[in-house]
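[SOLVED] Predicted holo structure with S-adenosylmethionine

Edit: marking solved, answer below. Original request kept for reference. I posted the sequence and ligand SMILES and asked for the 3D complex as structure tokens.
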Amino acid sequence: MPHIVFDKYNKKLETPSKKDGVGFNFVAKSFNFTQKKRNTEYKICAFKDEKEFLLTLREKDESYLLKADKVTRVSPLHLIKDALNSYASSIEANITFSNTHNVNQKVKPNQGYLKDIDYFINDFETKREIQIEIGFGSGRHLLHQAKANPDIQFIGLEIHSPSIEQLLKQLEIQNIDNILVVNYDARLFMEFIDSNKVGKIFVHFPVPWDKKPHRRIFSNAFINEALRVLKLEGTLELRTDSRKYFDYCTQLLTNLSTGKIVIDINKDLPISSKYEDRWKLQGKNIYDVTLFCNQEDKAIDLDYDFTFKDDINFDEIIKTISTKAIVGEDYFLHIEDIFTIEDKKDSGLIQITFGSFDRPLSKYILVENKKAKYFQDLPLPTSSNMKAHNKFKKMLKA
Ligand SMILES: C[S@@+](CC[C@H](N)C(=O)[O-])C[C@H]1O[C@@H](n2cnc3c(N)ncnc32)[C@H](O)[C@@H]1O
């Protein structure tokens, strides 16, 4: 990921300020709330092209590491690079390493097809059948499907930014207009798709995560969500070279009280992905398991209230709030850190992780002028997030 290392700087960043098209709203310093951080850390609030996000600045030994904050994701990647460059230039940093220069690209990625999660929550509507590919990687399979099925609206989910840029470029080169791309964790995404709208969900060669199974795409919650969004006879299609992952998924699927599954070994598809080519060369078996949906589901209700109503005394919170994780029946809440905004009394960021156990969400809450609000955007409208939010409101007495 893009980052800059520097060993000295000449100026302090003024806030609010703007340089080279990037705005800076504030700088907040870590309170090192859980005492886990060994180095001083700052969050720098940047904005560009109507998108607001945080950068992380960490003091380490004799140098400084500047990079994107992991929680406040933003696409496309050049926004982050521009913000990092602009910050380093504003403070006149003496750069010792940087990988943030946007090389001149002959074909520009078509950003029009890259959508934020908010778009899917608030604006996305289509009369066409939807098909989703999870973790499209090089995009070979998704591009092939989109060209072969122009009447289908495809949604491609990826969390690897270079793969996304690559696919967006191909959309431009090949003149394809029926793929929307989202940089979002697929395990969380489907909650925002209307019930019974999706014809197919492809999960091809997911990372098996043998040592960290909680990071796998497939889980009971994921399968249930897939069944809800799938139309009657719609399919969830796993293709993998990992026997362990195949066995694990097959076990989850055969424990369902509904649906039908079909298993294949070394099935030929019209298109072979990059990973598939690699495994075939090594003579590995390829396993397919397809789940067919055989029932209709109820519509979803995403109308949750994530506001804070009452005034907040930030300086008081810092002294009293607990670092201990709160665990409810189907949600949890953990205060990770607190950042105080420099030169601004009674204001700062609270970093929390919360929501459901297998799909935790990290967010910042910005407190300014005694008012609290979620930074960047609201938590995703899920019932676990709502429960965690209500608990947090009680803790803040807000
Ligand atoms: C092993 S690659 C397979 C890529 C492609 N499907 C293929 O067959 O060549 C797995 C891909 O899944 C993506 N991925 C992993 N976890 C994900 C998640 N939770 N949501 C969306 N994409 C994810 C990774 O970034 C990676 O590109």
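OP edit: Residues 77-90 form the longest helix (14 residues). Thanks to everyone who chimed in.
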